[in-house]
Amino acid sequence: MSVAAVIVAAGSGSRAGGETPKQYRDLAGAPVLVRAYRAFASHPRLDRVVVVVAESWKDHAEQLLSAEASAAGRPAEIVLGGATRTASVRAGLAALASDPPDAVLVHDAARPLASAALIDRVLDVLAAADGAAPALPSSDALKALDDRGGLGADLDRGAVRAVQTPQGFRHAALAAAYAGLAADADLPDEVAVARAAGFNVVAVEGEPDNFKLTRPEDFSRAERLLRAPIARIAAGTGFDAHRLVPGGGLTLCGVRIAADVALAGHSDADVGFHAAVDAVLGALGAGDIGSHFPPAEARWKGADSAAFLAHAAALARAAGAEIQHLDVTLICERPRIGPHRNAMRAALAAGLGVAVERASVKATTTEKMGFTGRGEGIAAQAAATLVWRL
Fold first, then answer.
1. At what angle do helices 305-318 and 271-284 cross, to 10 degrees?
2. Dist CA 268 CA 114 (whole Å)
3. In Å, what is the CA distance from 94 to each residue of 41, 169, 186, 196?
4. Taking 60 as the threshold, does the pLDDT of residue 17 lie above it?
5. 230-246 and 377-389: which strand pairing?
6. Which of 53, 126, 243, 294 has its Cα between 20 and 30 A from that of 9?
């Protein structure tokens, strides 16, 4: 059975507080959207993952997810959402229309803690049902509110469930259900869409930790779940240097800079990213960049160093490590780094799959001394801190 996921991330997330939408905020070292995407992109039963975002955040989402998609061996499919959840899911389904899967999972980006086992439970039911959704019983007494906002009649808690995502459906059934809705329909979730179309959705066991980040205190709860005590800390350093030659520009820390010079090297010669890769590999005790991407191999000629960075970050995750922080210092007389520093920092964070607060880029000169001072080349040094949790 071919399976695609649609991750809905186009909302404003205003109830969670802060100026940044909640799906782009840091959660224990990685943006919420990255954590949600990883759960599906890394799942062996998923063939495609489509992420639906607001237009104003599209570039940022692409930057965050490109490295994650590369590590998972699949492209990052990002489409623009609408003004409502229903419109956004429509957009995600439209992206699948040319090559429809057998089944589709729809998931809220604001639920970053969905487990692989939960995804499996939903998919297993779809072998014999049109739809399935995780649900949890209530352990609390339930009461209706009266017209004054007071507590009113008791509700039978055995007859109600708190419904979560991912909600899974046979693709043909869900597409037909959406086709039958009015253009301006705004329903709370896909279960409501399915019921409006007249078909049932089977409940599967949900997960208490798969809660939706809605209020500021939800972030604190998620942080507590993710931040187990630290068992080990390791630091690594990296250094790289490349010659400057006449050319039409250069790439530093993932940012293309217009100039009358270029950096000479087998790949794109991005000294900042090369130093960062060696710093992560050093903390892992996993050799150096040359042992993973030998310059003698033709396939790395002109390669984008962002792929090298994504590889190092994936190795860290596979080893159970969290990249706590990475600091890069660029050493050069030119070009001026200041105008590009924020973009470089964002590119470094995106490549590592961490929040931007965990990435630093700065620059210095050698006061006209040495090869960097004479403008013959650019050097970079980096320091990485990795932690392993119990």
1. 20
2. 37
3. 19, 15, 17, 20
4. no
5. antiparallel
6. 126
Q: Is there a single domain that holds both residue 149 and residue 213?
A: yes
The answer to whether the pTM exceeds 0.90 is no
Closest CA to 325 of 342, 306, 349: 349
pLDDT of residue 355: 83
Question: pLDDT per residue over 80-89, tens digit each?
Answer: 999 999 999 9
- Is 220 exposed, middle or buried (CB count within 10 Å of its CB: 0-12, 13-18, 19+)? exposed
Domain that holds residue 327: 230-389
Amino acid at 22: K
What is the CA 191 to chain-centroid distance, rounded?
26
Domain boundary among 199, 226, 253: 226
CATH of the domain at 67: 3.90.550.10
From 203, 226, 249, the end of a domain falls on 226
Q: pLDDT (tens digit, 9 = 90+) per residue, 327-354?
A: 999 999 999 999 999 999 989 998 898 8
Average pLDDT score over the chain: 92
Q: Beta 377-389 vs 321-331: how paired, if at all?
A: antiparallel
- CATH code of the domain covering residue 288: 3.30.1330.50
> Half-sphere exposure of 127 toward its Cβ, with a 13 Å CA cutoff?
5
Q: In terms of domains, do 182 and 243 share one?
A: no
